[in-house]
């Protein structure tokens, strides 16, 4: 599957369930491992990855393909990880 093809990107923008499922299957494990690498515990990593997907689904129709999907997802991941750290710091 060519995740960078114009047809695939168009399917994503139109929230085609097959295209979305393929992206989730391809990238979830990488996102989760990145969270672990950032020092989050298992449950925190799972929550952050879920939050990444929720955000991605909300904004995918605006994805302009100026970057690769993976790069876009990791940008969301780093923002969500920062948000999570800020919120846990406030609770302490």
Kindly list the characteristics that best describe this protein.
4 helices, 92 residues
Categorize the overall geometry.
elongated
Percent range for β-strand residues: under 5%
How many runs of DSSP E, i.e. beta strands? 0
| Averaged pLDDT | 95
- Oligomer kind: single chain
Order of helices and strands: HHHH
In the predicted model, the low-confidence regions spanning at least 5 consecutive residues are none
Helix content: over 70%
Q: What can be said about the biggest beta sheet?
A: none
Using the CA coordinates, give the radius of gyration.
14 Å
**What is the SS-derived class?**
mainly alpha
- Please report the number of helical segments: 4
Query: What distance separates the N and C termini?
Result: 45 Å
Give structural notes:
- With about 90 residues, the protein is mostly helical.
- Helix content is about 75%, strand content about 0%.
- The protein is elongated, with a radius of gyration of 14 Å.
Describe the secondary structure blueprint for this structure:
Layout (H helix, E strand, L loop, with lengths): L5 H8 L3 H21 L4 H18 L9 H23 L1
Helix pairs in contact: 2-3, 2-4, 3-4
In short:
The chain has four helices and no strands.
């Amino acid at each position: 599957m060519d995740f960078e093809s114009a047809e695939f990107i168009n399917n994503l923008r139109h929230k085609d369930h097959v295209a979305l499922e393929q992206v989730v299957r391809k990238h979830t494990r990488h996102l989760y491992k990145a969270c672990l690498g950032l020092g989050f515990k298992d449950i925190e990593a799972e929550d952050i990855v879920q939050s990444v997907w929720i955000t991605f689904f909300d904004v995918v129709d605006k994805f302009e393909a100026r970057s690769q999907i993976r790069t876009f997802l990791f940008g969301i991941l780093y923002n969500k990880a920062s948000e999570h750290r800020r919120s846990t710091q406030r609770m302490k």
